[in-house]
């Protein structure tokens, strides 16, 4: 039992602060698949932290690499200077990206990766004499972090509401692909919905394709509750973007590094974007880090348009390629490879899928969706109390020693890729008991 800290000073992110502080939930340590809470209870991590600790917690190989790096070089300025570990981390990340996306720009978070990608898109079109391409097209229910760029292309109403008057101009949105009436209880990619990509044609006719800089989507929307792309949908978006000279950005902050049983969702779905945003699993969330993987053609166009000896892209962060984050990334990618964790996720996917879909007859269940090692159970909202059921189910799971995520009336699951079959059974068995217990 650890002492309760004074909770007042910390303003918690994306948290019901008053509710939380009235009944705090504190995690004090973690190892492998388990957290330990302040009362000493062991809690199975059904969410890989926040979709990020893909190799499990407290991995000695990563911790040791960070320690070694900190003792050797704690920090080096990334502007006009470099450090070997950042270059090596970039090389290692590039090697996992789809063919051609081998230029890596480091950031410190998914939000920064998205805003960086949007800026690279604008710089690219300008470098090629197409500076009129300034519009972005995102998607309803999309989540691209909390920067003004990412929030603007994002499509979650609550995240935009307070800032609506100052969002980035020139942004439009595709419709979300989730349709419970048409595709409830789909296993993997729904058969219904590829035609929704054709909505892009409508937006291009409206705005004129020559003004559109990029389309940005999560290949699988995570934060909105595991919305899996319909079969043929991403292929169609790719084809339309290529036809109209529009760049396609995949936000893979959640989907990269094994979540879908491959290095990237692009690889899993066989669709290659022009830019791909990364964070989270890039270094197992040990030290904050994000990145943008950029096609060599885009990189070369921007570099080639700048005068000799001039800075080519006026953008960067004090902590871009921070030595500790970079060392953690290299050690993490080593671990993924040595333990075959992406392949393990692919192998376990059918077990995970069967286990989550077995909840179909549990109380309150409206839809179940899954792909790779990600799944969601959408609940019928309780009349007049949207979100209450999922919150209560989350609490019941936590009391029973399992951490799940809830957003609205959706429960989401994304365990570390080291999870075993027994733990998968425990995870979904606990969810079933929680659904039986709540009203
Ligand atoms: C697809 C996607 N993009 C961007 C972000 C933002 O990442 P961060 O919270 O590291 O800024 C997230 C976070 O969950 C995400 O899922």
Description:
The strands form three sheets. A seven-stranded mixed sheet has the order 4-10-9-8-7-5-6, sandwiched between helices. It has a four-stranded mixed sheet with strand order 1-2-3-13. It is built from 16 helices and 15 strands. The protein is globular and about 65 Å long. Helices cover 38% and strands 16% of the residues. The mean pLDDT is 98. The chain folds into two domains: 17-55 and 340-437, Aspartate Aminotransferase, domain 1 (Alpha-Beta Complex), CATH 3.90.1150; 63-338, Aspartate Aminotransferase, domain 2 (3-Layer(aba) Sandwich), CATH 3.40.640. The protein has helices at 17-22, 48-51, 60-72, 84-96, 110-127, 148-153, 157-160, 180-183, 199-207, 233-243, 265-269, 296-305, 323-338, 341-357, 388-399, 421-437, and strands spanning 27-31, 34-37, 42-45, 103-107, 135-139, 171-174, 212-217, 247-251, 275-278, 290-294, 365-371, 374-379, 402-403, 405-407, 410-413. The protein is an alpha/beta fold. β8 (247-251), α11 and β9 form a beta-alpha-beta unit. Pyridoxal-5'-phosphate binds at residues 109-111, 114, 143-145, 218, 222-223, 251, 253-254, 279.
